Amino acid sequence: MEILSKIQKRKENMENIENIEVHSAKLPGKFDFWRIVGKVYKNFWTRQIVGFSSIWYLLFIFGVAKDFYTHIITFTNPVSLFALYLMVNLFFCLLMFYSRLSIATQICSFLLHPCILVLFIMTDFSNYFAILPPLIVSTFILCFSKANETTKTVFFTLYAVMFVCAVIGFKVMAIFKITVPLMPPDYSMRSDDYLYSPDRHYRIVMYIDPPETENRTAMYY
Predict the structure, then answer these.
(1) Alpha-carbon span 62 to 201, nearest angstrom
(2) Rounded to whole angstroms, how far apart are CA atoms 36 and 32?
């Protein structure tokens, strides 16, 4: 009798478990939603698509370097601008960390440091607020990417040598007062004959250099 009663209790427990599973499967709302979100988050193709954001980050760094080269930038509100710049770098860092298994992110993780070296040169090795955030992001992403460890070590060594050589070259040029076209123009030679864009959003200022050189222009917002 005891054995029969135990078997009966087990049957009742199994029936209760089945009823709970049926009812839980019919529950609408957030449980189904979060299960779908989890599947999308872990999906291979989702990571591959998000990985293309690293290409946009690469273009973003090139754009910042280009602006420092073609413009004389004056910061009217540097704190807010730096906070926005920091948030943009953090946003792309999270996207690239999520997609670190994707092919696009792994390739761009090796190309970010040369881009930052270009930015380093365009800012005359002085604007650390523009250099440090992408440098930290690129180093972090390269460390956590799923590329071969030997390859990462070789590229880290190569990038370190590139940065050291660039800094040494800049210091030597500064000591011997060697000027290059990347340096800012002489403000004392600025012409007062301003030109404006049709929408009046840009002012073009001409710098009158000595006759043996071409005129240099710079745009202001």
Answers:
(1) 23
(2) 6
Determine if the pTM surpasses 0.90. no
pLDDT, tens only, 182-193: 555 556 666 666
Measured between alpha carbons, how far is 215 from 209 in angstroms, rounded to an integer?
A: 6
Query: How many CA atoms are closer than 13 Å to the CA of 216, on its beta-carbon side?
Result: 20
| C-alpha–C-alpha distance, residues 32 and 37, integer Å | 9
Q: Which two tokens stand for residue 104?
A: 């696009």
> Tokens standing for 207?
């710098």
Three-state DSSP state, 192: coil
Token look-up 């998000």 returns 50
Q: What is the mean pLDDT of residues 46-69?
A: 89
Q: Measured between alpha carbons, how far is 93 from 87 in angstroms, rounded to an integer?
A: 10
Instruction: Give the helix/strand (H/E) hosting 193.
Output: none
| Structure tokens, 28 | 């609408």
Q: How far apart are CA 30 and CA 143, in angstroms?
A: 36
Determine contact, residues 91/142, Cβ cutoff 8 Å: no
